[in-house]
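lol so apparently i was supposed to do this last week
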Amino acid sequence: MKKAIIVGSTGVIGKEILKIFRQDYQVVEVNRSSGDFKVDMQDAEAVEQMFQAIGGFDVLIAASGYGKWGTLEEHSIQDFHDGLNSKLMGQVNLVVIGRKYANEGAVFILTSGVLAHQPMIGGLSLAMINAALESFVKGAALELEQGMKINAVSPSFAKETMELMGLDSSTGVPAIEFAKIYKKIIDERKTGQVYQA
Ligand SMILES: NC(=O)c1ccc[n+]([C@@H]2O[C@H](COP(=O)([O-])OP(=O)(O)OC[C@H]3O[C@@H](n4cnc5c(N)ncnc54)[C@H](OP(=O)(O)O)[C@@H]3O)[C@@H](O)[C@H]2O)c1
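anyway here it is w/ NAP bound
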């Protein structure tokens, strides 16, 4: 059975991805506070140790990471760094370190977000992080070895997240619809793509 590592498997989107991938894959769950491996993806040393322990894998999905929600006025310089270290560099760590351990033809799927292309007041940290992440995916796709592939999913706004935030969720997309795209990416066998979800 092929092995899929899911970082963020307890999240709103990640738990739906988990349900789908469990059907066909041996899944390794990774989060900071629970799972088969408790790892903060922004800690490169811990990420390396995790991959050493897991060994080869066929799919790595990251649906994880933090970026501050708040206006420019509410952002300190440290807030920008915190988001870059978490959502951007955390996912970059998983690819740059993980590719050394990945099986031939492995697929990496990272998660960006709609704010990269549709800025909103309060979303400037995430806009910056998501755009950088998508550019990383396009650049890395040109260089990954051994038939490996890398793509990103750019979710809009999950219905469940809107409900958690106390917002009107009528325009939200159920997280399961995002999760289906992660599976579709594996089947399509493309690389360097950003899938708007
Ligand atoms: N939900 C949306 O509407 C939406 C829209 C656009 C983009 N996105 C993006 O999609 C991704 C997932 O969103 P979500 O709403 O599903 O998130 P969520 O519900 O907050 O869950 C985040 C998941 O990632 C894990 N995690 C967080 N930081 C981590 C780290 N540094 N290292 C390892 N695991 C970490 C969390 O577990 P622990 O807390 O145990 O670590 C949890 O499993 C995020 O990057 C988010 O920006 C979400």
